[in-house]
Amino acid sequence: MTAADVRPAPGGARVSALARVPAFWVIAALLLAGAIRMAQIAGRLASAYPIATAAAVLLFALLAVPFWLVVAELDFLEREPIELLVLALAWGGLVATSVSIPASTALEDIVAKLGSPHFAADWGAALGAPSVEETAKTLGVVAIVLIARSQVNSVLDGVVYGAMVGLGFQIVEDVVFAVGAVALAGQGDQVQPVIATFLLRGFLSGVWSHTLFGALAGAGIGYLVVRRDRRPAHRVGAAVLAFLGAWASHVLWNSPLLGDGLGNGALALLGVLLLKGLPPLLLILLLVRRAHDREADYYVRRLGTLRDPEVITDDELTVLRSGSARAAARRYAGERAGRAGRRAVRRLQSAQARVAVELSRDAVPGYDDIREQRKALRELGHPEAITGPRSWRHTASTVVTTAVAIAVLWVALSALGGA
Amino acid sequence: MARVTRRELMNLLGALGVVATFAGLVLGLPAIDRALPAERPVRADEPYPVGAGVTVIPPVGSTLDVTGTRPGDSAGTALFHLGAVQYKIAVRPYDGDLGSAGQRLRKRITDTPGYQVTGPQLQVDTAGGLIGLQGGYTAPGRGGRYAVFVSDGLTIEVTISGADLDLGRTLPQIEASTRTLRTDGRAP
User: Fold this and answer.
1) Which of the residues A270, B74, B82, B85 has the least number of beta carbons within 10 Å of its own beta carbon?
2) Which residues of B touch A124 (CB under 8 A)?
3) Do B21 and A23 touch (CB under 8 A)?
4) CA-to-CA separations, A206 to A164, A169, A174, in angstroms, rounded
């Protein structure tokens, strides 16, 4: 790994600072236009189906929480400014969606006109929506680069912003689809179609949806911006390839391939979902993990140069570079020193990450937070934030969670006609 | 007056590039869509497959609008134009009875702002033996008729809309077409 993988960012990105960039006002105008358009749509839906709309907003907003937490954990070492994360989310939910509604319809109609109604019925959604939506979402990461280029300082940052744009898009699109299902059902202001849509779009196709596609396209933009050690053609090629990867994953998901299924029943439906969704999911997760590890290596190496076990021990360096190891260390502290131990380890890890980022900016880091948490941990009899042996409680919790997830999946598949 | 730096100018150009791409999507694609003809001639002497095995013989002189036509194995739609009158057939999986299907369609019509159903629903049947319900509705500047059939786990919804004068002139042909609806995918 080289220093070209990560370009240290200056601290923060306050709105007042962003407002000095000309692009900010253009992006703000687009956000305002998108907000007005989506408010009109939301107003129409809420006036016709107030209960269903409220239920859809609540359910899909709750669904956004685990996605947000995963993306935040991915971004643990060098956190992106909250202003930019909110901007990315708003771009996905307001701008990309309001553009996609008329443009996707138009493209699908063009497919029908140039091909045939049969072709459009089979491939219209597979060609129209991905082309428009992936473009509109990727432009969200471009917008972030335009107004705060220095904040996109690693490929992982591109992944984070792309995922946030995708998450905003996914949540708003799901709400519109859910209330659309209520209208189609023609039973009045009922919640049942909202729940069916939540099971289908939230559970069954939520994992391999816009958040994931956005992350891949965002990685390409991150690479284009950060890897200035590479030739421009190489960087542009990588960005185009990442965009095409996101587009192709979306096309595959929307395509009529395996439309006849692998037979009847929940297992057959699950097979189709896995065949269409799992390959892009694994590919993108692999790429994201690689981007995460490269960024983690960079920051952890900075901390390693301190050679100060009071700040970070060798074992803590190993823990800090992996999301699962960080979580395991918090869990281990919880087992040994209770809630206070868990909290102290979390704060210690955050303080260590802040020092790593300050070191990368050649700033003089403040060690007070680390010393405070280290002292608290010593007093709790657990001086080091390390992982412990795998506990039976964690194993049992993993087994139970997996069983519950499979049960929910099974119920969702059966309820939607798989069985 | 403050001088615009080259960096600021490039930044602004980049942002305008984003706006231009959006304009291409929001204005360009619909403009191309509008520039391409949507109507196709359709034969009025053979059944047209709407979807899910449902067929209909289109009215004489009608054209098929490909933007509203999406045939499929389990569902489908077909949109015909007869002059200024729209004749739409939508087929979907359905596990309820005819009464609830009629209520559902009426509710969807009245949920549209400005739309009202007129009068009670009457029974209607097809040459192939499908029994359905039909009624009328009004909307600002236009009127309409609807019919709904339930058969073989499907609901077939027919909506006809246009100006009153056009409707009066074309309804007999469209109703004759509706009577040719079949669910077995074969010609009547």
Assistant:
1) B74
2) 70
3) no
4) 14, 12, 10
To the question of pTM greater than 0.90 for the whole model, the response is no
| Each residue's pLDDT tens digit, B148-166 | 999 989 999 999 999 988 9
Q: pLDDT by residue (tens digit) across A199-237?
A: 888 877 777 789 999 999 999 999 999 998 899 999 999
Q: What SS3 class is residue A216? A: helix
Homologous superfamily of the B39-183 domain (CATH)? Mog1/PsbP, alpha/beta/alpha sandwich (3.40.1000.10)
Beta strand segments in B52-151, E:
54-56, 63-65, 70-71, 76-82, 85-93, 116-125, 131-139, 142-151
Longest distance between any two alpha carbons in chain B, whole Å: 82
Tell whether B74 is within 8 A of chain A (Cβ).
no
Spatial CB neighbours of A122, under 8 Å, sequence gap ≥ 6 = A256, A259
Contacts of A357 (CB under 8 A, 6+ apart): A8, A9, A77, A78, A299
- B19 contacts in chain A (CB < 8 Å): 26, 30
Indicate the helix (H) or strand (E) that contains B162. Answer: strand B154-162
pLDDT at A1 over 60: no
Mean pLDDT score across all residues of chain B: 92
**Residues β-bridged to residue B116:** B138
Asked if the model's pLDDT at residue A280 lies above 90, the reply is: no
Structure tokens at B146: 């609807």
Q: Mean pLDDT across the stretch B174-188?
A: 82
Encoded tokens for A106: 């138009």
ipTM score = 0.88
